[in-house]
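Our consortium's second objective concerns turning raw sequence data into structural hypotheses that experimental partners can test. To show how far this objective has progressed, the report includes one record in full. It was chosen at random from the queue rather than selected for favorable results. The single chain below, 176 residues long, was entered without modification.
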Amino acid sequence: METQAPANGSVPGSNPQSPATRRRFLIAAGKSVAALVSVGAIVAAVRFVYPPSRRWLRWPRIVAPFQAVAAVESLPLGEWKLCALGSDNDEPMKKRAVWVRREGDKPDAFRVLSAACTHAGCPVAWRSDRKLFVCPCHGGTYDAQGNQKSGPPKRPLDAVDYQIKDGQLLVRSDDV
């Protein structure tokens, strides 16, 4: 016994108005997952590229609050001091910090550098005996001004915007 195709030439069950089938559901679910993964990848790429490109292109900041890091009197003249940003409730690995050196008594006589290596973001340490910043992750070194000396980093430590207000050194938190 043969089954005959309908007179209009369509295949049974292929009616676009028919209820959702398993195949249609799986195709729609796959497309949704692919769209979510794509959006996540785009957001991650923008977050990775935006801060360095903003500094390089000198784009204005979107939101850039200043945070107090230290009292001006507590910063020794001519010596680097590590100052942490954030509260004590922050996780240790997520704490951000800056290196600060007071170069005189004038308000603009400070040098503030990010404590994150420009290669992989590891925290750099100041070695006063060698007069170098050293990255423990890949051995990158920077001179006392933050300029790249050796190792994988291709650019100097990032300078951080700061201001003095009411005897406190404030740094722009999105630069760290």
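The partners drew two points from this record. The chain has one helix and ten strands. Residues 68 and 170 are 4 Å apart (CA to CA). Both points have been shared with the crystallography group to help prioritize constructs.
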